[in-house]
TrEMBL record:
Species in which this protein is naturally found: Xenopus tropicalis (Western clawed frog)
Subcellular localization, as worded in the UniProt entry: Membrane
Ranges in coiled-coil conformation: none
Membrane topology field: Multi-pass membrane protein
Main subcellular location of this protein, as a coarse class: membrane
TM regions (residue ranges): 7-30, 65-84, 96-113, 133-155
Alphabetic keyword roster: Membrane, Transmembrane, Transmembrane helix
One Pfam assignment: PMP22_Claudin
InterPro entries on file: PMP-22/EMP/MP20-like, PMP22/EMP/MP20/Claudin
Top-level lineage group: Eukaryota
GO terms under cellular component: membrane
Protein name as annotated: Protein NKG7
Length: 167
């Protein structure tokens, strides 16, 4: 089904943009208190001076999971583009492979975001820190990846099955 393939690719592109924006910007947490600072996964900035964050356990895990999720998403996008040619190996079509890769990317991103949220929620609840737009973009990307994967599953089910029956 062409419509579900196109919607899947559009959602994948938007997810990739959201993940990369969230990964590379430093507005995950913002302190509106006396410090007026903002931090991301890589650095913290306060009064126009930025410092690199040390590789604490949860930050390293979040970085790794988000980067791995991005790699899976890129592979899923390539597979989704190949699905327009109705490529298949046995019963596995390019649409099914794209769906599996995108759903896996969503799972790894969900785990990464959950680790970050679980470690920082006490700072947000007890202080002047607040989650900001980079953080929320990654959460939106999680849901977009699952919807994109579902679109590819619909495209897989609508694609002709290879084999003697198709002849």
């Amino acid at each position: 089904m062409l419509c579900s393939r196109v919607i899947g690719i559009i959602l994948s592109c938007a997810s990739l943009i959201f993940i990369l924006t969230g990964l590379l910007t430093d507005y995950w947490l913002v302190d509106f208190g006396e410090k007026l600072s903002h931090q991301g996964l890589w650095q913290i900035c306060s009064k126009n001076v930025c410092y690199q964050l040390s590789g604490s356990g949860f930050l390293g895990a979040t970085r790794g999971l988000v980067i791995f999720s991005t790699a899976l998403l890129l592979l899923g996008m390539v597979s989704a583009c190949l699905s327009f040619n109705n490529l298949s190996v046995g019963k596995i079509t390019a649409s099914l492979l794209a769906a599996m890769l995108k759903i896996l990317a969503g799972i790894f991103l969900l785990i990464g975001m959950s680790v970050y949220t679980g470690e920082t929620v006490s700072f947000v609840n007890n202080g002047s820190l607040n989650y900001q737009w980079s953080f929320y973009l990654c959460w939106v990307a999680v849901f977009m990846l699952f919807i994109s994967g579902a679109c590819n599953i619909v495209a897989h089910q609508a694609s002709p099955t290879p084999g003697y029956e198709a002849v």
